Amino acid sequence: MKRIRLGIVGLGRAFSLMLPTFLADARVQLAAACDPRETARSQFEADFDAPAFHDVEALARRADIDAVYIASPHQFHAAHTRIAASHGKHVLVEKPMALSLAECDDMIAACREANVHLIVGHCHSFDTPYLRARELIASGAFGDVKMIQALNYTDYLYRPRRPEELKTEEGGGAVFSQAAHQVDIVRLLAGSRVTRVRAAVGNWDPARPTEGAYAATLWFENGAFATLAYNGYGHFDSDEWTGWIGEMGQTRSADEYGVARRKLAKVASREEEARLKAAGTYGGNAYTPAANVPDARRHQHFGPLIVSCERGDLRPMPDGVVVYGDERRERIELDAPKVPRAEVIDELMAAVHGDTAPLHDGVWARGTLEICLAMLRSSAEQRDVLIGGETSITKEC
Fold first, then answer.
1. CA separation for the pair 123, 133 (Å, rounded)
2. Which fold has domain 4-124+341-360?
3. CB–CB of 245/318 below 8 Å?
4. Are 318 and 297 contacting, i.e. CB atoms less than 8 angstroms apart?
5. What is the pLDDT of residue 110?
6. Quick one: pLDDT at residue 247?
7. What is the structure's pLDDT at 391?
8. CATH of 125-338+374-378, one of 3.30.43.10, 3.40.50.720, 3.30.360.10, 3.40.50.2300
């Protein structure tokens, strides 16, 4: 069996969320890591009998690495991608791809010049329920997509944050971190280029001075439109509308209400909050090892979503897709996931070992960032923003 020897840049929260995938998928070998925290490096070396470095360059130059997973803070994505590409490594970089379109262009150019693949993820548009809904749309049985509605209510803003995560100009806030998911999903399902955006953002807590909410309408070249809504202020929880199946596919309880706000209320300073976040990620003293995390028996998701086509509505769910046709309602069941986020590894394997152009490549992710930036601009200027230069979807999953 072919494997991917993966180097990890950044052992924080994103890596902690991907680690169950890396452990469960036999196609992945964790070959090296890089992180500024000595505790995280020591933990990695003990867990995987592989070297860990303080310097990204030292990791990227290793000959025993096929690809680099970049899970460093947003503001470092561009620089770390250039380093990895310069040493001939394929790149899997977390969303958002970068903080500006110029950085995206640099990343795309660096990977093209090095003849390596660039994949951006994990993003929830990788999730099987959305991919299955896309297949149903492509079948033509329901006609063209006309409207998509997506919403998500979470406690995002009250989870422990580093100081820069509460500064929009440094990549913080719900638009950079959360809208990237919803925008990616609706672009995948609409199957067309976004031409226009109108948005408003919510920044309502002076103690958390960045966007905690947004609402947006996206218009597509094929005549479809999508409405997106997100609220991360920790009151209503939209997992109530997905049968209390959480974003990671795990079973949740309504009794968890208010946990994030209560924990944060005990924190005395920004510095203490940053330490609390570090403690809960890989190598921290409060980190829960991936082997001890309850198995997810459902697929991951990003809140309730309905696709309205000419002859029916499609509702992706954690365990299937519910179809509301002209004459009947049916549920198309999905097998439970054996490996969480296996779709990311599928795409990475196809690129690295099959030289298959990925769906979620740099050009695709640049288009998503362009829309996110347009949302911020639309809200600030209180007007529609036109989108230009984005490629439409022509690739097959």
1. 16
2. Rossmann fold (3.40.50)
3. yes
4. no
5. 99
6. 95
7. 42
8. 3.30.360.10
CA 160 to chain centre: 18
Domain with CATH 3.30.360.10 in the chain: 125-338+374-378
Residue 307 phi/psi, 5° resolution?
Answer: -105, 120
What does the alpha-carbon distance between residue 13 and residue 122 come to, in Å, rounded to a whole number?
12
Name the strand (E) or helix (H) holding 33: strand 28-34
Provide the residue count of the chain. Answer: 397
pLDDT the model gives residue 296: 66
Rounded CA gap, 217 and 251, in Å? 31
- Whether the CB-CB separation of 168 and 73 falls below 8 Å is answered with no
Could you list the beta-strand ranges (E) of the chain.
Answer: 4-9, 28-34, 52-53, 67-70, 90-93, 118-120, 145-153, 194-202, 213-220, 225-231, 305-309, 312-317, 320-325, 329-333, 385-386
Residue-wise pLDDT for 204-230, tens only, equals 999 999 999 999 999 999 999 999 999
CA–CA gap between residue 369 and residue 198 (Å, rounded):
15
75: how many CB neighbours lie within 10 A of its CB?
15
Consecutive 10-residue averages of pLDDT for the chain (397 residues): 96 94 96 97 97 97 98 96 98 96 98 98 94 98 98 98 94 96 98 98 97 99 99 98 94 93 94 92 86 72 98 98 97 94 95 95 97 98 87 36
Residue 300 pLDDT: 95
Give which of 154, 214, 155 is closest to 179, Cα–Cα: 214
d(C-alpha 270, C-alpha 279), whole Å: 14
Of 304, 216, 123, 222, the C-alpha closest to 313 is: 304
**Type of residue found at 123:** C
Any residues with CB less than 8 A from the CB of 237 and at least 6 apart, and which?
153, 154, 155, 257
Region(s) of the chain under CATH 3.40.50.720: 4-124+341-360
Q: How far apart are CA 90 and CA 351, in angstroms?
A: 9
> In Å, how far are 152, 199, 228, 316, 377 from 149, measured between CA atoms?
11, 14, 6, 12, 22
